[in-house]
Amino acid sequence: MTDTDPSKRTAHVRAVQSQATLAEQLGELKNLPGYWEGTGFSLIARPHFEGGDNDMFLQLNLLRETLEITTIGSPVLNRGSVQGAISIFGVTYLHRVTDAVTGGALHIEPGMWLNIPATTDPKADASIARLGTIPHGNAFCTVGFTQQAQYDRIPEIPPANVIPFPIGGTPPAPGSANPFPQYDLSIATPNRSQSLPPEITQAIVNDPNQVLRDTLARQVNDEGKVLNWITRLITMTPDDRSIGNIPFITTNANTLSLESVFAIESVTDANGDEFLQLQYSQTGLINFKGLSFPHITVGTLTKAF
C-alpha cells in the first residue's frame, strides 16, 4: 500500500525552479539554452596508413552545424568529504556537424556545460566545465573561466596555430614556415582533400580563425550590424587524464589536449533588432609520428529558437 501522508515521506523532490532563478544559477551560461545553427570550417591532419609509411592526410571541410542546448532544471549536488556539498547547475548539448558541400556526416557530440561555484578544498575560484563524448572513442572534461567584454569595434582574434610540432614541445610562433606540403594549396598532393570549394583559401588554411574575423568584418562593414557585448567561455584540459580514449585511438592517434573559446555575442542589425550569435574556435592535438598535429574547428552560429 502506498503511504500518502506527506509527513511520513522521506524523499525530497527537486522541482524545477523559475526561469529567472535558473538563469541566475547558470551564471554566464544563461544565454546558451536554445537551438543554434550556422556554418564553419574544419582542418584536421590525420594518420593515413594507406598512403604508405604511415603518412599524414590533411582533411579540409566547410561545415554546416546545429547545436541544441537544454537547461538542466535541478541542481546537481556534489557531496564533499573535506568541505561541505556544492550545487552545480548546467546545460546539456548535442552538436551535429555535416559537410556543407556534400551533406555527409562529420561529427556528433553530446555533452554538458557546467557552472561550478568557488570551493575551499580544493581552494578554487568559481569556474565552468565542458564535458563531451565523441564516437571515435574519446571523452573529455575541460575546465576554464568566463570573460565579459563590451565592444564598439571588431575584437582582435589571435591566430590559431596549424603547424605540427614535437609532442610535448612548444607550438611554433605565428608566421613560422610549415614543413608539410599538404598545407600549401599551390602544391598538388594526394594526401589532402580534393576538389576544394573556392571558399577554402590559403588564408584560412594558414589560420582558420580568419573565418571568424571575415564573418565579423562582413557583418559590420557590409551588413551594418553592431557588436554590443561578448561573453567568452574559455576551457582547456587541465592534465593528460582529462581525456579518455579507446586503445585504438591511444595507439594510432592519441589525443590528450583540447582548448576552446566559445564567444556568445549580442549583435544589433541595421533595423535595430538584437540577436544572439555564437562563435567558437577549438584546437585539439592529435599525436602520431612523434608530432602533435593541431585539429582546428571554427564556426559561427545564430540562435534560431
Number of E-type strands:
15
Give the ordered list of helices and strands. Answer: HEEEEEEEEEEHHEEHEEE
SS strand fraction:
over 45%
Spatial gap, N to C terminus: 45 Å
Rg, rounded, reads 22 Å
* CATH superfamily placement: Calycin beta-barrel core domain
Principal-axes geometry comes out as globular
CATH class: Mainly Beta
Helix/sheet category: mainly beta
Q: Give the second-level CATH assignment, the architecture.
A: Beta Barrel
The number of domains is: 1
Kindly state the percentage of residues in helix: 10-25%
Strand order of the largest sheet: 1-2-4-5-8-9-11-13-14-15
CATH domain topology:
Lipocalin
Uncertain residue segments? 1-7
Distinct helical segment count: 4
Q: What does the main sheet amount to?
A: 10 strands, antiparallel, barrel
Average of pLDDT: 91
